[in-house]
């Protein structure tokens, strides 16, 4: 019964009608009674007290007063007229002013009748006034659903233009809550409600719209935020569990010759505790009989490659092949050279396949791959081509996973009759809160410590006026045999301007350093030219690399010890952190210099202060999340997951952790939610999955 009522189209609610319904649908996506109930206020005005006119302060604050209008008059002004009313109580007199809507107000306001008025006061010429007050007859005020905390709903220009004010929304909300009789069935089990001392669904919905006091409002907000995050986590964790049940993986139960020989005899340095922990997690996954789907997060230089190699050696020990896919040719060549070096004393066949691999070499690779002579294949998107057939692919490693779409990853799945294990790696630290919401259905491993002996990059902020000192510093570093990056921002809308900035920068560097060889790399160059310039820098044929952000991901030049970032205020935090990661790869002390003008916004100052105070990518990612919000941080393709109605994953971090804890606990004890005590959750969950949106299961 209540379900049917909630599905009623919004035009049938008293006070709406076809015209208002059209605006509500278009502006707020409110199509039914249920949509309206789940349209939550974004703030509240505290109306707990009444003022007397003689208590008013000259501070332009919101006040509520009871009194009567004793006189009204029209006053001429430069443009048009204003309506002025004398409003009195037993302590004094003030003015109410309207600049428009005079006719309606004159016809509808009653003289000498008690009103409750609410609004901002002004002090002018010895008198208090209130422009366009909210007004309600005391008789109506006493009858209505009353709350001391008045909700304020999100609005738009069009809504106000069509007369759908905050007061109108409140009236509609009152009407819909009265029609439903607050008979909302529960969506959280009695045990959980008791354990967390949550309000019932009905109490929470009533108090979110018409809170009786601050305490009940806080409890209502907690209940609804917890519920929203709980069902999202339930969905993500359940998807992960089903994935493991349904999608069988190869069981790698052998840890054999390749892995042990490398670990005991050829590992170039001791693994950090974080690396050991992550390898253990991967071993356990690959031996479980379910397909591994793991995200490996690790800051630049934290040693993800060695973890990837050791995971590949487990595949080889179980007589399977492995592949590693990188987003660019230069990065795949770097991986290839790095892994060849690490495996030089092992009997392992490693090949490289990219877009520019010669046809004759391709044929050889295709043949050897199919007959099992190649153990590890490294490459770019070229690995995804249908012609590339493995004899027995057991593990696919994907580097910088945000550069590859889901469809591309799915192609790798089809490279064997049972999908290979998948390890996706990223050097872009994702805050824990965000990772739990976006990748809650992937298992996540984090390498959160740098190998010993790595010196943190020293980061300083310098203004343009210090440029000569910065040039002198660059000169000293080049004399020591080091190399330098100079990076310019790139903003799509103004490529011409950016190109000009880059070329101007290149010319001034060339003038300043006439004896040095300089490489230049930007997005408008042909890939082959770009690779040629990059390669010259890698081989130390050039001392300075002037570039746009195309060098953000990947290239490893241990000899480059200085990163100059021009117009650093135009970069986001994660970009600045990624760029800084290009230096600090050798044993020498490295430096990152952030150059800016003197005019900086508060957000820019926060970003620069964060960069100069910490090298911790996760700390930086948390600040970035606070500054930009989750949607911006992950890009539009991901933000759908975070289309939250009431919770905020930054501010409600602790509620998110609690929601994930209880969702995990319940699914561990009862994976199919089939026990009686979880029936309420199961019903709500089924409706949620069916309707595909978190708030549609409310009933």
UniProtKB/TrEMBL annotation:
Gene Ontology MF term list: 3'-5' DNA helicase activity; ATP binding; ATP hydrolysis activity; DNA binding
EC number: 5.6.2.4
GO biological process: DNA recombination; DNA repair
Domain Helicase C-terminal: 466-631
Keyword line: ATP-binding, DNA damage, DNA recombination, DNA repair, DNA-binding, Helicase, Hydrolase, Isomerase, Nucleotide-binding
Positions of the Helicase ATP-binding domain: 285-447
Role of this protein: Plays a critical role in recombination and DNA repair. Helps process Holliday junction intermediates to mature products by catalyzing branch migration. Has replication fork regression activity, unwinds stalled or blocked replication forks to make a HJ that can be resolved. Has a DNA unwinding activity characteristic of a DNA helicase with 3'-5' polarity.
Family stated for the protein in its record: Belongs to the helicase family. RecG subfamily.
Catalytic activity from the UniProt record: Couples ATP hydrolysis with the unwinding of duplex DNA by translocating in the 3'-5' direction; ATP + H2O = ADP + phosphate + H(+)
InterPro entries attached to this UniProt entry: ATP-dep_DNA_helicase_RecG, DEAD/DEAH_box_helicase_dom, Helicase_ATP-bd, Helicase_C-like, NA-bd_OB-fold, P-loop_NTPase, RecG/Mfd, RecG_dom3_C
Superkingdom to which the source organism belongs: Bacteria
Classification via SUPFAM superfamilies: Nucleic acid-binding proteins, P-loop containing nucleoside triphosphate hydrolases
UniProt keyword annotation of Repeat present: no
Protein name, per record: ATP-dependent DNA helicase RecG
Enzyme class, first EC level, given as a word: isomerase
UniProt cross-references to Pfam families, sorted A to Z: DEAD, Helicase_C, RecG_dom3_C, RecG_wedge
């Amino acid at each position: 019964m209540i379900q049917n009522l909630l599905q009623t189209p919004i035009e049938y609610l008293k006070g709406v009608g076809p015209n208002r319904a059209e605006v509500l649908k278009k502006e707020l996506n409110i199509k039914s009674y249920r949509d309206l109930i789940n349209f939550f206020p974004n703030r509240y005005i505290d109306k707990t007290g009444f003022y007397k006119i003689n208590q008013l302060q000259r501070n332009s604050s919101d006040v509520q007063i009871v009194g009567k209008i004793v006189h009204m008059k029209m006053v001429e002004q430069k443009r048009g007229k204003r309506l002025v009313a004398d409003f009195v109580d037993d302590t004094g007199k003030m003015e109410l002013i309207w600049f428009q809507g005079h006719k309606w107000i004159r016809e509808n306001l009653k003289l000498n009748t008690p009103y409750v008025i609410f609004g901002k006061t002004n002090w002018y010429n010895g008198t208090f006034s209130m422009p366009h007050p909210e007004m309600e007859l005391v008789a109506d005020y006493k009858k209505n659903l009353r709350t001391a905390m008045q909700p304020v709903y999100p609005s738009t220009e069009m809504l106000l233009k069509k007369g759908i004010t905050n007061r109108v929304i409140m009236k509609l909300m009152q009407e819909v809550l009265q029609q439903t009789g607050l008979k909302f069935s529960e969506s959280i089990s009695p045990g959980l409600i008791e354990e967390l001392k949550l309000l019932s669904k009905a109490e929470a919905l009533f108090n979110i719209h018409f809170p009786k006091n601050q305490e009940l409002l806080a409890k209502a907000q907690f209940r609804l935020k917890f519920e929203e995050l709980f069902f999202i986590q339930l969905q993500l964790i359940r998807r992960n569990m089903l994935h493991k049940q349904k999608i069988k993986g190869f069981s790698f139960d052998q840890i054999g010759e390749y892995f042990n020989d490398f670990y005991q005899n050829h590992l170039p340095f001791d693994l950090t505790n974080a690396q050991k922990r992550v390898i253990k997690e991967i071993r356990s996954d690959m031996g479980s009989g379910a397909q591994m789907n793991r995200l490996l997060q690790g800051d630049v230089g934290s040693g993800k490659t060695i973890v990837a190699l050791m995971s590949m050696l487990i595949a080889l020990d179980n007589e399977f092949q492995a592949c590693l896919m990188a987003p660019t040719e230069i990065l795949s060549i770097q991986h290839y050279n790095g892994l060849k070096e690490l495996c030089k004393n092992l009997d392992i066949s490693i090949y490289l396949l990219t877009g520019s691999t010669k046809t004759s070499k391709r044929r050889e690779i295709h043949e050897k791959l199919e007959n099992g002579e190649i153990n590890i294949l490294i490459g770019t998107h070229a690995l995804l081509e249908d012609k590339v057939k493995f004899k027995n692919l057991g593990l696919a490693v994907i580097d910088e996973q945000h550069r590859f779409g889901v469809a591309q990853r799915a192609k790798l799945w089809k490279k064997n009759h049972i999908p290979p294990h998948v390890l996706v790696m990223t050097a872009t630290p994702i805050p824990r809160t965000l990772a739990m919401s976006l990748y809650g259905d992937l298992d996540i491993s984090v390498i959160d410590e740098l190998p010993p002996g790595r010196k943190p990059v020293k980061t300083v902020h310098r203004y343009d006026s210090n440029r000569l000192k910065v040039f002198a510093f660059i000169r000293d570093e080049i004399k020591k045999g080091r190399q330098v990056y100079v990076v310019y921002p790139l903003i799509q809308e103004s490529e011409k301007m950016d190109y000009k900035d880059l070329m101007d920068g290149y010319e001034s560097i060339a003038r300043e350093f006439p004896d040095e060889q300089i490489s230049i790399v930007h997005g408008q160059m042909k890939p082959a030219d770009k690779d040629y310039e990059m390669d010259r820098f890698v081989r130390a044929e050039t001392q300075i690399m002037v570039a746009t952000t195309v060098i953000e991901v990947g290239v490893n030049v241990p000899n480059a010890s200085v990163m100059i970032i021009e117009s650093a205020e135009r970069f986001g935090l994660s970009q600045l952190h990624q760029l800084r990661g290009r230096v600090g790869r050798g044993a020498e002390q490295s430096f990152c210099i952030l150059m800016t003008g003197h005019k900086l916004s508060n957000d820019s100052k926060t970003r620069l202060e964060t960069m100069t105070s910490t090298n911790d990518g996760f700390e930086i990612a948390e600040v970035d999340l606070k500054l930009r919000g989750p949607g911006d941080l992950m890009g539009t393709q991901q933000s759908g997951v975070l289309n939250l109605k009431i919770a905020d994953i930054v501010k409600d971090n602790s509620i998110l952790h609690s929601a994930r804890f209880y969702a995990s606990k319940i699914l561990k004890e009862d994976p199919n939610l089939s026990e009686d005590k979880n029936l309420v959750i199961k019903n709500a969950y089924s409706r949620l999955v069916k309707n595909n949106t978190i708030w549609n299961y409310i009933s």
